[in-house]
Task: structure prediction
Amino acid sequence: MQILIITSAVCLLLSLAADKNKTLDGTMRGIKMFINMLPTLLTVLALVSIFLYLVPNDTILRYLGRHSGALGVAIAAVIGSVALIPGFIALPLAGILLHKGINYSVLAVFITTLMMVGVFTLPIEIKYFGKKAAVTRNILSFIGAVLIGILVGMFI
Amino acid sequence: MKPKKLLKDYFWTIIFAVFLAGSSVFAFEPGTKIYGNFYMFFVEMISFLPLMFILAGLFDVWVPKEKIEKHIGPESGLIGTFWVIVLATFQAGPLYGAFPVAYILSKKGASVRNIFIYLGAFSCIKIPMLAFEIGFVGLKFSILRSLISLPVFIIIGIIMEKIVEEDYKVNKV
Result:
């Protein structure tokens, strides 16, 4: 996160030094895009918060650790696709799972689907890319994530 | 913005806010727990997303279309793909933060293939995330997962290009 803040600050300052009006224009464009996105985003975050209450992280952990093999991979793929756990929480969780002896394939599938596939964020994605592209990207990423998991398990 | 449109846009947010406020007044436990979750997600979002949008806005006014078209456009080949992957790895945050950047890249003439490779690289091999992953899950696993992801999301980009129409553009939101 610090990297992003520093990068933004440096870009803003450089931009300001070069051209004040252009900077103002660019910043306003960015803020406008953000404000347009906000209602959908807040709805998505509300839905995810309710989902996380119904299915807490420890429940997710318990289900992930329970099975290995094809069933384990399938469960990890579904959970990873639906959940929207921020990386700074998901990766420590992944570390705990590993110490508990979770299968590497299951872990790779979980991490990859978590990052690549977003069922809850689909409304946002559809707004940007249209229904066809957004849905196709998620399906392909789901398949890709399972493939990545199987290969990681084979090579590790 | 017109009040009516505002009400329509924020309809579900308002319902949710009323639910949270009610929960806090009547000490309704599920409501307060959901608030806790929402707060966590909201803090995560608000601490990076506005910056991503401002960077996207600055990128929009400063970087000329010809440059993007030349380097990551339809004719850019493997080097173009290399550049979008480098760009993606230096970013942070959840995938929805990459969408505004994808919009700007598409507007400036990036190829469809490179847009989706950008999204793939953003989700699989961001450096800040990798650092976390190495710390918690281990170096070998992280490197192996990254190396295997690379061809997979490049292939996904190529398939996406075949599936969506040739004049495909990412929408402005």
Observations:
- Chain B touches chain A through 75 residues (CB under 8 Å).
- The mean pLDDT of chain B is 92.
- The two ends of chain B are 15 Å apart (CA to CA).
- DSSP finds nine helices and no strands in chain B.
